[in-house]
Amino acid sequence: MSKAPSLVARGLTRRYGGFTALKGVDITLQSGEIRGLIGSNGAGKSTCMDVLTGRGPDLIGEVQLEGVDISKLSERARRRAGLARSFQKTNIFPELTVRQQVALAARRAEFDNTEEVLSELGLMPHADRLAGDISYGDQRRVDLALTLVGRPKVLLLDEPAAGLTLEESLSLARMLRALAEQWKLTVMLVEHDMEVIFSVCDHLTVLHLGEILTEGSPEAVRSNPEVVKAYLGSTFA
Ligand SMILES: Nc1ncnc2c1ncn2[C@@H]1O[C@H](COP(=O)(O)OP(=O)(O)OP(=O)(O)O)[C@@H](O)[C@H]1O
Ligand SMILES: [Mg+2]
């Protein structure tokens, strides 16, 4: 893992009316790392991904992608610059085939590596099926495929394993780790299952009420009493 940061963000802030959902969060992702972003429901994890990717109005904060300031770019331009994101809820069109869907995302990313992505994610057998007809686990792989078109530099994945069994989630995590190494991706992953987090992440950031509670190795975070109190509860105490 090289030491140059892929993504540096400063002062990420998001207000909804009088409520501040994200309060000046700083995040630095080192090139090639898989970062876990954890925290209770409503901590601000999805909002953090929104602000990083330029989604929505009134975004505050500075974002640098591989040394280039992308803070003023639109959501779409940030995507083309190499910052890709998946959503908490599946984002697929059930009436399109898997291949059509991935190709559509590739057009938006302005770089067509549809066939490569389908093949890497093991989706070739389903490529010509309607996305609505494949299993939920395969649909989640399509969500991941949509982020990988255009060969992005940084992937922000918002609960990509939500709704999967533990076994399926761990398998997705292994696939992610292999892809990250092979494609030299930097990943930030939101995930609630600690077994999945500990199996794949190099480093963790814990959000609590819109602020960073702590950052560190999975072991350090797991044994931090504040984290246990605010988030992990007795499960990992
Ligand atoms: N559109 C919105 N309008 C008002 N408040 C919002 C909006 N979106 C999010 N919030 C609030 O902002 C806070 C952070 O929400 P966010 O969705 O980022 O949390 P999260 O950490 O992703 O939670 P979860 O684990 O449930 O996905 C929450 O209190 C939420 O209710
Ligand atoms: Mg969320």
How would you characterize the overall build of this protein?
- With 237 residues, the protein is of the alpha/beta class.
- Helix content is 36%, strand content 27%.
- It contains nine helices and ten strands.
- The strands form two sheets. Strands 6-7-8-3-9-10 form a six-stranded mixed sheet, sandwiched between helices.
- Helix 6 (166-183) links the parallel strand 7 (154-158) and strand 8.
- Helix 3 (98-109) packs across helix 4, helix 3 (98-109) packs parallel to helix 5 and helix 6 (166-183) runs parallel beside helix 7.
- The two termini are 31 Å apart.
- Bound molecules: adenosine-5'-triphosphate and magnesium ion.
Largest sheet data: 6 strands, mixed
Mean pLDDT: 93
Task: Name the helix and strand elements from N-terminus to C-terminus, one letter apiece.
Answer: EEEHEEHEHHHEHEHEEHH
The count of DSSP E runs of length 2 or more, i.e. the number of strands, is: 10
The assigned structural class equals alpha/beta
The main sheet orders its strands as: 6-7-8-3-9-10
Summarize the amount of helix as a percent range.
25-40%
Q: What's the helix count?
A: 9
Share of residues in strands: 25-35%
Shape: globular
Distinct ligand kinds: adenosine-5'-triphosphate, magnesium ion
Can you tell me the residue ranges where pLDDT is under 50 for at least 5 consecutive residues?
Answer: none
Radius of gyration from the CA trace? 17 Å
- State the end-to-end CA separation: 31 Å
